[in-house]
């Protein structure tokens, strides 16, 4: 399936944000990365940088939602999540993090609350959807609903935290340990049901 120039810009924004963060990623960087012509930014994104950030968060959110939803079980979802990001950290010399986290952490400009509110809301929606999908996988595996929702939040929070620590320390040990611990917890929750 062909990707439109507009879609390439959104994908480029998400990729640049995951490695550089939200603030250092300028529209000019997105244009260069995507190969889009200069005037296309304002044509496709009349809302400017804020619109582009929102759409990049939506793209990243949907991308991971689809990957988690396609997994045949909670353990497959967990393993896929950790394996993918472990490889991305290696491939990018520990620069690739989660673009949704980057935007959530960096979007709160107190001088421009009207711009940051929408971006933060999109990040919050992505996190909420990821938790829901992880909980759905757990329920499908037999974990009761309330326990599945709580465990899904633990999985999501632990994963994102481990990813941040791995990037900061330039070491996969934390990511590997959190993966093992979460795997054990999911197995135990599934076996108790």
UniProtKB/TrEMBL annotation:
Keywords: Transcription, Transcription regulation. Signal peptide: none annotated. Gene3D superfamilies: Tetracycline Repressor, domain 2 (1.10.357.10). Residues 75-181 form the Transcriptional regulator LmrA/YxaF-like C-terminal domain. InterPro entries: Homeodomain-like_sf, Tet_transcr_reg_TetR-rel_C_sf, YxaF_TetR_C. Pfam families: TetR_C_13_2 (PF21993). It comes from the Bacteria. This is Transcriptional regulator. The lineage of its organism: Bacteria, Bacillati, Actinomycetota, Actinomycetes, Mycobacteriales.
